[in-house]
Specification:
binds uracil, 9-stranded mixed sheet, alpha+beta
């Protein structure tokens, strides 16, 4: 990540000449990440938020990546045994400082995983109170039926204190091995697999295809990550309301 001297950054941002900026620093008017900074030579990066007399000079910028998670890697930041989703980003040359996966996919689950350093957005997406849809493609050992659609929509007892929230099951192809889309609004441990098990069916293959309004890029190969576009980030933000 590129770093710059604080006095140069402030002067380039139009806060005055280098010596005027030094004066602002001396007066403790400049806060870096909420603390006064008096050293003109202090190095700053896009990870730092800077204010001067309460006015925002530089907003911290966050990083957002979409990963097409392959089977066999774990949704963790580090692990002594298994390859992690952050290892995949590093192998692509992406710096992973401060990054973490938003929620978890099981080791054998594939598909859309958001990786970011934006804790507030992650909290929004994962909070069960926010009811953010997560849609999965699944291949099921057994015939998916209208009874399953009804049971999923009523909420299932999967052995937790509470029943699952209503979920939408769409049968794409029925048969001894069925293909379905399932949309849930929670992220309980092994949730999709346990929901099908409650209906006495086993998940053979599971892939997440969307989270909120963000869909997995069909051109993104398994194991590859790419930065989200600004438009994709805004799709995930709660406060952005589309113009009518
Ligand atoms: N539900 C599961 O059972 N596994 C996942 O990885 C995600 C949802």
């Amino acid at each position: 990540m590129k770093s710059t001297r604080l006095d140069k950054y402030l002067a380039d941002a139009g806060l005055g000449t280098r010596s005027e900026v030094k004066n602002l620093l001396k007066k403790r008017f400049v806060l870096v990440n909420g603390s006064p900074c008096v050293r003109p030579e202090q190095k700053i990066t896009s990870d730092d938020e800077i204010t001067c007399q309460g006015r925002l000079v530089r907003k911290k910028t966050f990083s957002y990546y979409m990963l097409n998670k392959p089977a066999g890697v774990i949704s963790a930041t580090e692990d002594s045994r298994d390859r992690t989703v952050l290892d995949l980003l590093q192998e692509q040359g992406i710096p992973t400082n401060g990054l973490f996966p938003v929620g978890r996919l099981d080791k054998d689950t594939e598909g859309l995983l958001l990786i970011t350093d934006d804790g507030a957005l992650a909290h929004h997406l994962l909070s069960p109170r926010r009811h953010v849809n997560k849609t999965y493609f699944a291949r099921i050992d057994g015939e998916a039926t209208v009874c399953d659609i009804e049971a999923f929509s009523a909420g299932l007892d999967i052995g937790d204190r509470k029943k699952t929230l209503p979920a939408r099951l769409e049968i794409l192809s029925p048969g001894p091995v069925s293909e379905v889309h399932l949309t849930v609004q929670e992220g309980r441990f092994h949730q999709v697999k346990r929901m099908f098990l409650a209906q006495r069916k086993k998940v053979l293959y599971l892939k997440r295809i969307s989270m909120g309004k963000l869909s997995l890029d069909p051109d993104l190969l398994p194991g590859r990550a790419r930065p989200l576009t600004e438009e994709e980030v805004s799709l995930l933000r709660p406060e952005i309301v589309s113009p009518v």
